[in-house]
Amino acid sequence: MKNCFLIGLLVAVANIKLSAQTKQTEHINRIWAAYFNQSRFSNKWGMWAEAQLRTKENFVEDLSQGFLRLGLTYYLNDVTKFTLGYAYANEFPSENHKNISTYEHRPWQQLQWHTKYGKQRMMQWIRLEERYRRKVKNDDELADGYNFNWRIRYNILYEIPFYKNGIEPNSWSFVANNEIHVNFGKQIVNNYFDQNRFFLGFKYQMAAHSNLQFGYINVFQQLGAGNKYRNFNVVRVFVFQNLDLRKKKP
Fold first, then answer.
1. What is the pTM of this model?
2. From CA 69, how far away is CA 46, in angstroms rounded?
């Protein structure tokens, strides 16, 4: 069942890309840098904290977006957790607001779970977002009010260690990751499919609870007009910390 779902997902993304070849597609090169922290305070409670910064084009030219995301996590068990949170997104001056930044308020809810296959690991999450994006009047001024839509995201990551001992400090792994985004709501007309993100890269386990992931991510996005697409070639550099702050039993 799992393999059928993954094959279906990849076929769907491929069909979307093929249908876009005869339409207008913009190609952009960027760098995404981010820090993620998931800390567990007790058997049931923890937190999610995240900061991201993305360049605009030609990898190092200007800034496009910045994100701050926080969440309160409830652990259903050691491998499954639910997070309720809020994100603030800033979009630096861009196409229809060339001289000002605009922003977005984004409450979110997420169910995340982990599976092990011997030394290999798989992580999945389903995330629901409520996106309140500030309206833009012109290049120099924001308008009153917000555009709103829902977005659901499904993310799957698979990790294959290079060493027989598995994942341990100073070890390397191969990482493959795919995440699909789907829009819905009254204001969505042409782009129910929002974007797909496909990542291939490496993970270096710096310490027991800290790791560095870097590699290439392809982001294929459909814009609101419906017949315009963006294809991003992205160098992704992420640092993750997963801290267990529970008191150890003597």
1. 0.88
2. 14
Q: Give the model's pLDDT for residue 13.
A: 54
Q: Domain range spanning residue 203?
A: 2-243
Angle at 57 between CA 56 and CA 63, to 5 degrees: 20
Intervals of the chain under pLDDT 50: 1-5, 7-8, 11, 18-20
Asked if 207 and 4 touch (Cβ cutoff 8 Å), the reply is no
Q: How far apart are CA 16 and CA 221, in angstroms?
A: 10
- What distance in Å separates the CA atoms of residue 104 and residue 85, rounded to the nearest whole number? 14
Domain membership of residue 230 (yes or no) is yes
The SS3 call for residue 11 is helix
pLDDT score, position 250: 63
Q: Do the domain assignments include residue 248?
A: no
CATH number, position 63: 2.40.160
